[in-house]
């Protein structure tokens, strides 16, 4: 682990009620972020955090990268819900890799009893053709799987598209490892995407049901970013797009946070150009190092670069502070990500009020 002691650098949650903070009203957690920000790691950690205390959570991957399987050290995920990890205090995380073709076959079987017809369509490439010329259809199928899991209750029986049964929810929450920030609004706004394709009929009805869940208080879109210019700006733009689409923004999660190596007075001295290189030379000489002056100049340059990075991150942090949603922070991991690190990150999310 490369980072500060637990709790260092974490921000207090601002402007949210206990209900918002605990996520009790939210059952579908959509996680998005620019590539390279650790979106899949955060989604997986979030699922573990939500499952703590004996809950059951479904983690859905929709991009076909098998990133969830990699971080959990699991074999590739099928299009089937299966346990992937145990959470704290008896919780359980299940996972699946959503696939548009498999979702269509399931859709045809569930609502029309037409699985064999769907297999024929697949054999002739009709499914790929349809989702290529109408990308909105693919998104409806992928988001539809997640929203169905949100609504599903024990004892449900589906016939002709109708759901019956009044048992408890099968999943206490569903976490979606969603597409990157640049495409998230389009991906979630499936009604607009299928408007030109199907204005009436079962496809439109299915899209309406998906949007009923996505637009409700049950769904929140969480944004993952790092303290760098491009990811931060894309996050701010993505939040504006999600709000314009009438969807709910959840938490802003700053990932891979690196603490300053030096105290504030040292960083301030570097910024003001008053850093005492002479003291550094004397210290190196006292330690018996050869070429103390050359070494001191090299170290001073590195301290300067570090100070510039810290100052830049502070500026980005101030810009992100304008987002009036909960702010959470996770540290940079120094040795890759595996199940152990995911549990540690999940614990940090819980410590910050999740």
UniProtKB/TrEMBL annotation:
Ranges where the ArsA/GET3 Anion-transporting ATPase-like domain occurs: 28-207
Family annotation (Pfam families): ArsA_ATPase (PF02374)
One MF term in the entry's GO annotations: ATP binding
Protein name: Anion-transporting ATPase
């Amino acid at each position: 682990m490369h980072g500060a002691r637990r709790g260092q650098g974490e921000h207090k949650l601002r402007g949210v009620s206990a209900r918002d903070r605990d996520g009790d009203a939210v059952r579908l957690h959509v996680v998005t972020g620019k590539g390279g920000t650790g979106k899949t790691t955060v989604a997986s950690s979030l699922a573990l955090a939500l499952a703590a205390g004996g809950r059951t959570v479904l983690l859905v991957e929709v991009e076909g990268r098998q990133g969830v399987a990699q971080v959990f050290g699991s074999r590739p995920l099928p299009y089937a819900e299966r346990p992937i990890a145990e959470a704290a205090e008896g919780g359980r995380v299940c996972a699946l890799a959503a696939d548009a073709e498999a979702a269509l076959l399931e859709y045809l079987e569930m609502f029309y009893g037409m699985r064999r017809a769907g297999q024929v369509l697949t054999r002739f490439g009709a499914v790929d053709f349809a989702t290529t010329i109408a990308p909105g259809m693919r998104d409806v199928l992928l988001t539809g799987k997640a929203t169905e899991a949100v609504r599903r209750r024990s004892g449900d029986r589906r016939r002709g598209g109708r759901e019956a049964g009044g048992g408890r929810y099968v999943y206490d929450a569903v976490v979606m490892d969603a597409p990157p920030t640049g495409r998230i609004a389009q991906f979630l706004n499936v009604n607009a995407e299928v408007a030109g394709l199907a204005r009436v009929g079962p496809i439109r009805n299915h899209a309406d049901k998906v949007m009923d869940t996505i637009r409700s208080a049950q769904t929140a879109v969480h944004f993952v970013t790092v303290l760098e210019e491009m990811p931060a700006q894309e996050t701010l733009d993505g939040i504006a797009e999600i709000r314009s689409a009438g969807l709910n923004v959840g938490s802003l999660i700053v990932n891979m946070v690196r603490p300053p190596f030096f105290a504030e007075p040292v960083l301030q001295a570097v910024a003001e150009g008053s850093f005492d290189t002479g003291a550094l030379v004397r210290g190196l000489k006292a330690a018996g190092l050869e070429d103390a002056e050359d070494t001191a100049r090299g170290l001073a340059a590195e301290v300067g670069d570090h100070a510039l990075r810290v100052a830049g991150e502070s500026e980005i942090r101030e810009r992100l502070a304008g987002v009036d949603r909960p702010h959470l922070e996770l540290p940079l991991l120094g040795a890759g990500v595996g199940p152990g690190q995911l549990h540690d990150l999940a614990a940090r999310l819980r410590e910050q009020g999740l």
